[in-house]
C-alpha cells in the first residue's frame, strides 16, 4: 500500500519533455529511495522543501519542470511557454516529491484507492490505519463519492 510511482508514458509525456534535474543533483540519492521514504524525509525537513520550491522559482530557462504555490495548493508540471501535465496537491511534501520524481524522469506521484475498498478515498499515503473508513464499522456510511470530495478532502487532483 502507499504511493505508487508510474513511469512517464508517451501519452502523459508533454511535448519536448526531458529530465530537468539542474540544481537538484545533490538530491539524487533521496529520489532513488522508495517513495514512502522520500515523502517521510520531506515531512521531516521543511527547509529541504523550501530549497526545492526556491530552486524551481529561480529557474530562468524553459522548457522545464516547475512547482508553484497557488491559493494554498501546490501545482507541479512542465512549462514550455504554457503549463502542461499539471497536477495539483494540497500538501507541499507530496508536491515536492512529485516535482523531484518528474524532474529526474522517474515518473509521477499517483494515488491509490482505499485499501479496504469500502470508501472512495485516495491518498499518497494510503494505509489501513490512515484511511478515513478504517475506523468506520461495516455498514456505516462511508466517504461521499465524487470528484469534488477527492479534490477538496484528499488533496490530489490529476
Explained architecture:
The structure is a single chain. The protein is α+β, with helices and mostly antiparallel strands and 158 residues long. It has a domain of 107 residues. Helices cover 30% and strands 21% of the residues. The strands form three sheets. A four-stranded antiparallel beta sheet has the order 2-3-4-8. A two-stranded antiparallel sheet has the order 1-5. The longest helix has 12 residues. The two termini are 19 Å apart.
Features:
single chain, 158 residues, alpha+beta, four-stranded antiparallel sheet, two-stranded antiparallel ribbon, 8 strands
Summarize the structure.
The chain has five helices and eight strands; from the N terminus they run E-H-H-H-E-E-E-H-E-E-E-H-E. With about 160 residues, the protein is of the alpha+beta class. It has helices at about 30, 35-45, 45-55, 90-105, 145-155, and strands at about 5, 65-70, 75-80, 85-90, 110, 110-115, 120-125, 155.
Shape: globular
Q: List low-confidence stretches.
A: 125-130, 134-155
Biggest β-sheet: strands ordered side by side in the sheet: 2-3-4-8
Strand elements, count: 8
Q: Work out the strand percent.
A: 15-25%
What is the CA-atom radius of gyration, in angstroms?
16 Å
Structural class by helix and strand composition? alpha+beta
Mean pLDDT over the residues: 75
How far apart the termini lie comes to 19 Å
Q: Tell me the major beta sheet.
A: 4 strands, antiparallel
String of helices and strands: EHHHEEEHEEEHE
Q: Which percent range fits the helix content? A: 25-40%
- Count of alpha and pi helical runs: 5
Amino acid at each position: 500500500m502507499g504511493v505508487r510511482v508510474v513511469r512517464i508514458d508517451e501519452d502523459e509525456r508533454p511535448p519536448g519533455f526531458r529530465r530537468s534535474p539542474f540544481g537538484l543533483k545533490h538530491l539524487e540519492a533521496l529520489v532513488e529511495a522508495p517513495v514512502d521514504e522520500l515523502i517521510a524525509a520531506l515531512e521531516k525537513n521543511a527547509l529541504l522543501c523550501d530549497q526545492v520550491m526556491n530552486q524551481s522559482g529561480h529557474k530562468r530557462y524553459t522548457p522545464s519542470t516547475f512547482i508553484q504555490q497557488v491559493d494554498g495548493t501546490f501545482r507541479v508540471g512542465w512549462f514550455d511557454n504554457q503549463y502542461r501535465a499539471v497536477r495539483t496537491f494540497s500538501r507541499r511534501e507530496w508536491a515536492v516529491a512529485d516535482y523531484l520524481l518528474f524532474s529526474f524522469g522517474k515518473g509521477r506521484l499517483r494515488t491509490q484507492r482505499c485499501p479496504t475498498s469500502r470508501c472512495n478515498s485516495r491518498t499518497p499515503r494510503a494505509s489501513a490505519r490512515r484511511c478515513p473508513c478504517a475506523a468506520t464499522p461495516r455498514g456505516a456510511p462511508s466517504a461521499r463519492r465524487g470528484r469534488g470530495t477527492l479534490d477538496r478532502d484528499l488533496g490530489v487532483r490529476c
